[in-house]
């Protein structure tokens, strides 16, 4: 089955699906986040330790604020995808792109962890499991198969992803500021 998919989709096409995958996943969050947080705010404050309650405030955004935050993240992701497709070689753009892919992959498990912690649906979990997870695994597979990445690249990308993580709260800040 993978070989049939590989034959039908060029690697550049699979890479180009990254921004689309991101938008599908984050659309679920845009649609559901505000209502879910508003409905669960008291419960969130009761179960989240006081020292971590700033996280609740960071995700307590209106739908337009979330949309702006997602737009900021999308621009960064689209730029990284564009730059990688221009060169499709090793180097800084491959590391940057793979770090963003790593963030998407890890995000699946944060959504699953949230569902377990809150014993039910949390915004973004459906598309994380059914869109982001299979896509990110397939893209990793294709990048390995093309010998564009190896385990060293993935390890470096993981640490770059940790450094890039502040993009998310920065995007939330932009959303809060402009709406």
UniProtKB/TrEMBL annotation:
**Which residues span the membrane?**
66-85, 92-109, 121-141, 153-174
* Lineage top rank: taxon: Bacteria
Keyword hit for Cytoplasm: no
The record's keywords, sorted A to Z, are: Membrane, Transmembrane, Transmembrane helix
Short name of one Pfam family:
HXXEE
Protein name, UniProt field: HXXEE domain-containing protein
Native species: Bacillus methanolicus PB1
